[in-house]
Design a protein that fits this description.
- The chain is an alpha+beta fold.
- The protein has two domains: 166 residues, Yope Regulator, Chain: A; 140 residues, no CATH class.
- The chain is built from ten helices and ten strands.
- It is elongated.
- It starts with a helix and ends in an 11-residue tail after the last strand.
């Protein structure tokens, strides 16, 4: 969603929106919540950090399972180590999204209040001196001592990641494999008479995904390599799709092999301008959709890198105040 929409949504929820961390946060129903915008996976991740004070009460995981079974907009949940998280699917209008998040916040805060849960540090469980932090791109509520421990650990992790080499040859192999899967989809879609450009989106996504899996890490060079492979494969897929159609038509009248049909693609297009126009049109659409998949991935890479192995304090959380309802 756009920055303006996110700011309006946070205002409607009576939360603060922080652009750098892509997160809304604040007190709601007596508990401190963070709502992270996870655009790449089309989710909003609601988090709060609590511990029980009354033994024998219903645990949050039981409540979350029940709530999720009743709401079709949820996308997974977790409770453990004083941390409660619930995923909300990013779908529909901003007004609808706001209503879904509000419903979840109300239900969670109501359950926690009724069952005697209090806000606390995610790591040690202390109830005072805590702050909302973004640590390695993960929202956490921690005290000063635990924050210092985590930041010290980040330094070690940063050095380990720098020392970890990317297996570029394997990454290239993975990107080619992912792009080939998309290319096969392209040929199939084209054969059934549809614009195959949507397969370009799949091609780029799988090339990036498989590069990361095969190389062990996705970095800027890897992103560029995978994207370049996807763009090349778009042309290859369109060429093979045209060659297949030419082969199927000519084989009814002549003895011709598929390789011979591939060689005849360009001469055939020179003789048939309409076919050449269709070829170029599908190719352009494919490149546009491939770019539509690639650009967000590259932007996400930069955003993630800017927050990776970093710790940022955003706001104190140990002084709860009741949130007002949306009017």
């Amino acid at each position: 969603m756009s920055l303006a929409v996110l700011r309006k949504m946070s205002a409607d929820l009576h939360l603060v929106y922080d652009q750098k961390s892509a997160m809304m946060y604040g007190n709601f129903g007596g508990y401190f919540f963070a709502v992270q915008d996870k655009s790449p996976v089309r989710q909003y991740l609601i988090s709060t950090w609590v511990k029980p004070t009354v033994p024998g009460r219903t645990t949050p995981d039981v409540f979350l399972a029940s709530y999720s079974s009743q709401k079709n907009f949820t996308a997974g949940f977790y409770y453990g180590q004083n941390t409660l998280t619930l995923g909300i699917k990013a779908s529909g209008s901003s007004k609808n999204m706001c209503a879904m998040i509000y419903d979840a916040l109300s239900a969670i805060s109501g359950f926690l209040s009724q069952n005697g849960y209090v806000g606390c540090c995610a790591d040690c469980g202390c109830e005072s001196g805590t702050s909302l932090c973004l640590i390695n791109d993960i929202a956490l509520n921690v005290c000063d001592s635990c924050y210092n421990t985590r930041t010290a650990n980040l330094t070690s992790l940063r050095e380990q990641e720098k020392a970890k080499p990317a297996k570029i040859p394997l990454g290239i192999l993975g990107a080619i494999l992912g792009a080939v899967i998309g290319a096969v989809l392209w040929v199939v879609i084209y054969h059934f008479g549809y614009i195959a450009g949507i397969a370009g989106f799949v091609m780029s996504f799988l090339a990036l995904k498989f590069y990361g899996k095969f190389s062990g890490k996705i970095d800027l060079p890897g992103t560029i390599i995978a994207t370049a492979i996807a763009f090349v494969m778009v042309f290859v897929a369109q060429y093979f799709a045209m060659g297949l159609e030419l082969y199927l038509v000519l084989s009814e009248y002549y003895i011709i092999t598929f390789p011979e049909a591939l060689q005849a693609v360009f001469p055939f297009m020179q003789q048939e301008p309409e076919i050449a126009t269709a070829f170029v049109t599908d190719l352009v659409v494919g490149y546009l959709l491939t770019a539509a998949a690639s650009i967000p991935s590259i932007i996400t890479y930069y955003r993630t890198q800017s927050r990776q192995f970093k710790a940022i304090r955003l706001a104190p959380t140990s002084m709860p105040q009741q949130s007002e309802a949306i009017r």
